Amino acid sequence: MASANQVRASHILIKHEGSRRKASWKDPEGRVIKNTTRDSAVSQLQLFRDDIVSGKAKFEDIASRFSDCSSAKRGGDLGPFGQGQMQKPFEDATFALKVGEISDIVDTDSGVHIIMRTG
């Protein structure tokens, strides 16, 4: 359970050529990531977001199949976290959401994300 100064969130991360670590569980050599532009990562994420918001797809299903974060195996769940534990843009976006809301595209050093606040 998230405490008063904590939030809980799930996210979908798409890494791209500008990401600080160009490898992930589904692309250990980083072959796809190194050839993905930020724009194409954003386009992909926007389509996922549209499908989730319209009810065509479940957030956790997309996260578990497509997210470049190891949290994919938990449907994107990052668990509870407080201020100062995540990269600033990610933290700011998460704290600004109401529970159940999904962010727009959020840029961090890791890549581009959409975030769903769950607690």
From TrEMBL:
Residues 4-119 form the PpiC domain. It catalyses: [protein]-peptidylproline (omega=180) = [protein]-peptidylproline (omega=0). Coiled coil: none annotated. The keyword Isomerase applies. SUPFAM superfamilies: FKBP-like. Residues 1-32 are annotated as: Disordered. Its EC number is 5.2.1.8. This is Peptidyl-prolyl cis-trans isomerase. It comes from Hevea brasiliensis.
